[in-house]
Amino acid sequence: MESSQRHNTLVHFRFNPEHKAERGRHGEGSNCTGRDGESVVLKVPVGTIVYDKETGEKVHDFAQPDERIIVAHGGRGGRGNQHFATSTHRAPREHEQGKPGGERVLRLELKLLADVGLVGYPNVGKSTLISRISAAHPKIADYPFTTLQPNLGVVTIGEPPHEDSYVVADIPGLIEGAHTGAGLGTQFLRHVERTRLLAHLIDVSDASGRPDPVKDFKVIMGELESVGLGLEKKPMVVVASKMDVANPEKVASLRKHCKKLKLDLYEVSAVAGKGIPELKYALGKQVAEIRAAACALDKPAAPKKVSPRKAKKRAESAKRVSKQAAFKKRQSR
Ligand SMILES: Nc1nc2c(ncn2[C@@H]2O[C@H](COP(=O)(O)OP(=O)(O)OP(=O)(O)O)[C@@H](O)[C@H]2O)c(=O)[nH]1
Ligand SMILES: [Mg+2]
């Protein structure tokens, strides 16, 4: 199985779920072994997690492109007559059957790979926001749980040739008790598990019907923590939404809370377009910083520069050691 950047979905497995590698050929005369069967390489998108369906064990997590693993080995071919020949048994009729190849039932799960995850209560304007900053067209309506499936949107910032982009995931809203299955539950939170940054939307208008935006913030944080994916520790920006119809007291109390927690607060109105470009650029900037930090961690440390004289000395001493070792080896024989 191999991860490929050219695949975005697992749909090719839906209609073709069974894959069998070619069987090897029979051995032939003149002590020839049969040709090996061709392997089958199953391509999966980056972000696929492979589970063994029977044991539930995680087989592999394809986090990078071009990762390759063997999920089922081919069987070993049996030995032919010649392997049973002895000096007194020159033309043996004995032979050995080949072993069957490995067979496995796997479950594939694809996680969305987004840079920014939008989280918050239902109806706070997550889908409206993604539709304003990207080309995504999710369903938007004035009732909770409009979004039933995650949506992805690509946000482009800057002008060509220096433009940059990042991917935003809009997921269904969360409510208190989501981790116990309330509302649509927390099943969609695994889609933001791999995001670099969370944008936590809080409705500061009176449309939410909830009196305290700080409580809203705490409830969602509690739900993020309860799923046990470490989401509450992710970098986060807070977005006060529906600023065109905001309740000033709610905005003030949210500002105070964010200041206390040292979290950046962006006040936006997706409908009026207020604060949207600032938020778009701020998210892009933070994503770029987090990406750069991750790249720096991945890079191996540069080898230390050694002066040519020192390098020569080191090589000579290494040679001396190997000569000594060879001498000791000869003596021990
Ligand atoms: N006045 C005003 N209304 C907004 C704003 N943003 C969103 N809305 C309205 O709020 C309602 C809910 O918006 P959605 O974008 O569907 O909210 P959501 O968070 O995606 O909701 P779920 O998918 O149910 O979780 C819609 O009627 C929007 O028109 C805003 O900035 N100002
Ligand atoms: Mg929505």
Major sheet summary line: 6 strands, mixed
Structural class by SSE content: alpha/beta
Give the strand order, joined by hyphens, for the main sheet: 7-8-6-9-10-11
Q: Bin the strand percentage.
A: 15-25%
As residue ranges, the low-confidence spans are none
Helix content: 25-40%
What is the straight-line distance between the termini? 48 Å
CATH class category name of the largest domain:
Alpha Beta
List the ions, cofactors and other small molecules found in this model: guanosine-5'-triphosphate, magnesium ion
In N-to-C order, the SSE pattern is: EHEEEEEHEEEHEHEHH
Mean pLDDT: 85
Rg measurement, Å: 30 Å
**By CATH's scheme, which homologous superfamily of the largest domain applies?**
P-loop containing nucleotide triphosphate hydrolases
Shape: elongated
- What is the number of independent domains? 2
Total number of helices: 6
Kindly list the characteristics that best describe this protein.
binds magnesium ion, 17% strand, 333 residues, 6 helices, three-stranded antiparallel sheet, elongated, Rossmann fold, alpha/beta, single chain, six-stranded mixed sheet, binds guanosine-5'-triphosphate
What do you see in this structure?
With 333 residues, the protein is α/β, with parallel strands linked by helices. The protein has two domains: 1-110, GTP1/OBG domain (Spo0b-associated Gtp-binding Protein, Chain: A); 116-297, Rossmann fold, CATH 3.40.50. Helix content is 26%, strand content 17%. The protein is built from six helices and eleven strands. The longest helix has 25 residues, at 308-332. The model has no long low-confidence stretch (mean pLDDT 85). Bound molecules: guanosine-5'-triphosphate (GTP) and magnesium ion. The site of guanosine-5'-triphosphate has 23 residues, from α2.
